[in-house]
Amino acid sequence: MCPNCGDFYRTVFLLGQLAMYADMDGADLDFVNAITPPLVVSLSEPPPGILSEDRDPDDGPDHPDDV
Prior knowledge:
The chain has helices spanning about 5-20, 30-40. By secondary structure, it is mainly alpha-helical. Helix 1 runs antiparallel to helix 2 (about 30-40). The mean pLDDT is about 85.
């Protein structure tokens, strides 16, 4: 297993939990909005085998800053 795989999976798990929390009635959306960006930025490259080998990294939606 790659050295950073555990970190990657834990971060993705936390983002999923945060998304579910955000959909709950009474969720603290200020907390969600404060925590989500640092978690996303902390994601490293996905471990080998997560993404298709033939995917084109340049093929996808435009980044908001590129429009």
